[in-house]
Queue: 2 jobs
Job 1
Amino acid sequence: MGKARELKGNEILKHIRCKMGDVAPYVITPGDPARVKRIVEHMDSAEFIAENREYTVYTGTYKGTPITVCSHGIGGPACSIAFEELIMLGAKVFIRVGSAGGRQKDIPIGTPVVITASFRGEGTSKVYLPAEFPAVADLDVTNAMIAVLKESGTPYRAGVGYCRDAYYVQDQNLNALLTEAGVMAAEQEAAILYIIGSKRGVKTGAVVSTDSNIWLENQPTIEEKEILYRQGESHTIRTALEAMYKLYQQGAHEF
Ligand SMILES: O=P(O)(O)O[C@H]1O[C@H](CO)[C@@H](O)[C@H]1O
Ligand SMILES: O=c1cc[nH]c(=O)[nH]1
């Protein structure tokens, strides 16, 4: 396992602009900085730590669980920087709270999807580990999120995600193949998070709300999609926070 780089003294890291002591062992990472604020609203309290480029960071507690919320931006290079710097500062358990395109016809927009593993259709993760290595979420993190969704009776899906680089390129043959193989949702960061988790020895998982679905015959307007996505997002935020609480009770960060 490759260790994260060690820090020098009170070093402030270049991108997330945090230093030792700023980051909790439990980290929730949305892509969108605006989502950070919507997550933090549900915490007991949270302090603004730093804002630089696409990275906005708050640290606080949820039901006594020490949690940092840090946005990671869009795509592999941006998110890998956030994950690496957070790990250097002591992050141990990650949940990505994201958006994604539904890839099964029966997934309505606004559905929470727990990504249990991810197809590595992007470039960044291959710099860390060869393409044959599976991008898999930590079982305890995944199980905690599924338990929260089951307990609340929220309709959800769980399964393999499709992680990719080029948002505006659609390979229809690959899309059809992956849907046939049961892939649930397409997004751009879960595989990188899971591979960095394996490489650096931290626990990772992801829950996304679908904001679209390429297979729907009647495509909603962007405004209708946003309303449905936000309904799903409220479930993903609650799922991540409650899962972190469960994991903290289990001592998931003690390794
Ligand atoms: O909403 P976030 O978390 O950014 O996730 C998804 O949205 C972005 C693309 O619109 C990509 O980052 C993709 O992974
Ligand atoms: O990558 C992504 C993210 C959100 N929605 C999509 O359709 N694709």
Note: The radius of gyration is 17 Å.
Job 2
Amino acid sequence: MKQGPFIAVEGPIGAGKTTLATMLSNELHIPVVKEIVEENPFLDKFYQNIDEWSFQLEMFFLCNRYKQLEDTGLQYIAKNKPVISDYHIYKNLIFAERTLKGVQRDKYRQIYHLLTDDLPKPNIILYIRADLDTLLKRIKKRGRSFEQNMDTAYLQQLIEDYDEAMSSIAAREPSTTIITIDGTKIDFVENPEHFAQIASQVKELIR
Ligand SMILES: Nc1ncnc2c1ncn2[C@@H]1O[C@H](COP(=O)(O)OP(=O)(O)OP(=O)(O)O)[C@@H](O)[C@H]1O
Ligand SMILES: Nc1nc(=O)c2ncn([C@H]3C[C@H](O)[C@@H](CO)O3)c2[nH]1
């Protein structure tokens, strides 16, 4: 049976994934699966010392997302029901390839593939790109204390890693539709027409 619409919103830190996923969920009456941030015991420590805490943090994200997407698969995908999530499982690898080194990175890669290769994958990705200034403004606006001193080089690197990752998904999975949104110019929060444009594109794809 053909998989129903599984839409993932992706982009670097603060791009507006949760915001857009929630807005689309309301507009299209499709349930949304959101990443849990507030209960993460390692994020605060990670931003204070990336090398010390990266393995724990990446494993924590991986296990949480594995469980969440396993449930999403049973609850929605297997029943052909549409669903939106504010992340793609591949983001684990985007971050981990950057934050882990040596043996830890090798072990992580193996565990990542073991856990995720047979998980349901989104067939539509909304990729929000945004430049460093825009992301920094949004991170500041949101005001999570542990993100306020984020290394700008880390964020800039993630912007580039995301571009590469999306190109790699496009090459590997030609059946996945990737809609790239220029988050620096398109403002789906402040400009209702911009949001309407995105929503109508998605409606067209899933009808
Ligand atoms: N297009 C936009 N214009 C103005 N503000 C925005 C826009 N999109 C998001 N924001 C604001 O920027 C902040 C970050 O947005 P959001 O939490 O949706 O990002 P995210 O990509 O889900 O972040 P994270 O990567 O940390 O999960 C929030 O305060 C949100 O209200
Ligand atoms: N290192 C690392 N790996 C991940 O898989 C990952 N996913 C999200 N994040 C960070 C970004 C936001 O600060 C905050 C909320 O998204 O958590 C991550 N950090």
Note: The chain has a mean pLDDT of 96.
